[in-house]
Structure to design on (426 residues):
């Protein structure tokens, strides 16, 4: 690893006085009980890094690679290990198959453990044809009119579960780009039924302690319909499948201006929210850094998450799958991921600050202005010193991006891997 723990300690020492000043000011404002309560939760909260987003992403027009990208799964794990050492909040990795097939599961699991990492949800891929694949997914996978294509897609998902079992993962995320490009192309009901039957077979292959996440997405460029198009459709599949099936919310997968926080609230209430893919967007499924465009929306989502999870007595850190799904076209992927994790944790901390009793009282009294004040006061409180303090206590860097830059870690990766290294993935 191009980063040693003494370098983190040294960096923190240099910046500790300035940090203390800000932290103590904030802690006095919040009171020690609130401060410690939020700190404890922040230290526990981990966000999984996607194996497919450690290299430079691209659009359909091109890809402008950086340098020093991880050339294989081992190097991807090393990159996530580096992120985790810097922020102690990225203690998990989510794999996409076949982009990242673990040939020796046990060895990969050990390698990850050496960095303090575990495996979050496994992702299958039936939205691309692979070089040696027998049948094509051009007209869909689980929805396909040809049973042989459906069987191929089902078997792929079962293979992904088996890879995940070897790694200690506990969930499978299924995202389908099944759908149609033109009106008339597809019988919606038959496509739904065929997809459901395929998912049922995959569900039957799940180990007892596994979950399956059905991810929805409203659109793809060139699409007229998607077969898992919105949370209603995903909820329908998840409900018909059974108690191990849940909906996965990817923040970029809604029609413009959708009220995602309301969707989240109801899915949680119905015990069908399984996990998250964090990213941000302005127009479509842009996969930009979490919190970079609509930070207030991210806060409002966390506000519902905290409220809903507390109502059901859930563990914030472990009862839902927290994952990033992003693509980095112009930034260093590692810096971008550090920024995403920071934004997610900031929104979480702000949501933890909301005075829920006062909020309910304002709602009961129809005191709209008071309710708005309560939310906005939490959102407008600068909790960054609290995040830094949580990192300090967890032996992470006070400022992860700052240290990453100070040590020129990208250059070290370029020296080790070369300028032309290209990662598999988006
Ligand atoms: C999709 C979706 C899936 C991700 C692929 C790469 O838009 O978000 O979660 O696996 O992209
Ligand atoms: Mn996603
Ligand atoms: Mn997406």
């Amino acid at each position: 690893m191009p980063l040693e723990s003494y370098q983190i300690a040294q960096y923190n020492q240099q910046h500790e006085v300035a940090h203390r000043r800000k932290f103590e000011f904030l802690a006095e404002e919040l009171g020690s009980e609130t401060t410690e309560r939020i700190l404890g939760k922040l230290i526990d909260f981990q966000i999984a890094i996607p194996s497919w987003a450690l290299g430079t992403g691209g659009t359909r027009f091109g890809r402008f690679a950086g340098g020093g990208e991880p050339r294989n799964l081992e190097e991807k794990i090393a990159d996530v290990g580096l992120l985790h050492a810097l922020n102690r909040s990225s203690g998990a990795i989510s794999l996409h198959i076949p982009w990242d097939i673990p040939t020796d599961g046990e060895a990969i699991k050990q390698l990850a453990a050496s960095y303090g990492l575990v495996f979050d949800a496994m992702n299958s891929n039936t939205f691309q044809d692979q070089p040696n694949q027998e049948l094509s997914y051009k007209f869909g996978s689980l929805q396909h009119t040809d049973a042989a294509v459906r069987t191929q897609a089902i078997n792929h998902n079962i293979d992904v579960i088996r890879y995940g079992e070897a790694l200690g993962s506990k969930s499978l995320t299924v995202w389908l780009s099944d759908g149609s490009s033109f009106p008339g192309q597809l019988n919606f009901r038959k496509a739904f039924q065929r997809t459901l039957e395929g998912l049922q077979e995959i569900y039957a292959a799940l180990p007892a302690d596994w979950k399956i996440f059905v991810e929805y997405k409203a659109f793809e460029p060139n699409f007229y319909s998607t077969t898992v198009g919105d949370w209603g459709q995903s909820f329908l599949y998840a409900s018909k499948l059974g108690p191990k099936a849940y909906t996965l919310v990817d923040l970029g997968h809604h029609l413009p201006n959708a009220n995602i926080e309301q969707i989240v609230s109801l899915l949680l209430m119905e015990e069908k929210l399984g996990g998250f893919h964090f990213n941000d967007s302005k127009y479509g499924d842009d996969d930009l850094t979490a919190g970079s465009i609509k930070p207030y929306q991210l806060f409002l989502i966390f506000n519902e998450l905290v409220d809903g999870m507390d109502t059901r007595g859930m563990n914030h850190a472990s009862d839902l799958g927290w994952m990033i799904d992003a693509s980095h076209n112009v930034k260093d992927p590692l810096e971008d991921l550090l920024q995403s994790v920071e934004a997610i944790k900031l929104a979480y901390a702000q949501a933890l600050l909301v005075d829920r009793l006062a909020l309910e009282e304002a709602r009961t009294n129809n005191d709209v202005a008071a309710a708005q004040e309560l939310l906005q006061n939490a959102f407008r409180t600068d909790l960054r010193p609290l995040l830094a303090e949580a990192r300090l206590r967890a032996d992470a860097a006070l400022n992860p991006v700052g240290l990453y830059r100070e040590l020129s870690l990208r250059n070290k990766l370029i020296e080790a891997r070369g300028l032309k290294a290209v990662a598999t993935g988006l």
Summary: Residues 262 and 304 are 8 Å apart (CA to CA).
